[in-house]
Specification:
Pfam families: TnpB_IS66. With 119 residues, the protein is of the alpha+beta class. Helix content is 15%, strand content 23%. The protein has one domain. It has a 5-stranded mixed beta sheet with strand order 4-3-2-1-5.
């Protein structure tokens, strides 16, 4: 995404269910606090989807201001968690890429990460 070097600990929080896409930065930041119970000024990404599942907004704090990305699909729909989800849905940056490409990140099977102990 635009060459940002997200940290290894950067997580992606999905706001389950539908969000009113008329909300802008301040309204979405309030949802991060109230609904996701997270800090909008952290280095995490917060993703919101409309009822029709064809629009996404991503809120991100970077250094001294917010970024707000907007994505609209013309013919397809995004996979999106149902509003009944009790715990927040958290993805990795890689899984966010899958979501933006139209894949269900819960069903994609990737190679497992290999970790080695260095002597």
């Amino acid at each position: 995404m635009i060459g940002f070097g997200f940290g290894a600990r950067t997580q992606v929080y999905l706001a389950a269910g539908a969000t009113d896409m008329r909300k802008q930065i301040d309204g979405l930041a309030a949802l991060v606090v109230d609904v996701l119970q997270a800090d909008p000024f952290s280095d995490h990404l917060f993703v919101f989807c409309n009822r029709g599942r064809d629009k996404l907004k991503i809120l991100y704090w970077h250094n001294n201001g917010f970024w707000l990305w907007y994505r609209r699909l013309e013919r397809e729909r995004f996979w999106w968690p149902a509003p009944q989800s009790v715990a927040p849905v958290i993805l990795s940056i890689r899984e966010l890429g899958w979501l933006l490409e139209g894949l269900d990140p819960r069903r994609v099977k990737a190679h497992r990460r290999a970790e080695f102990d260095l002597l």
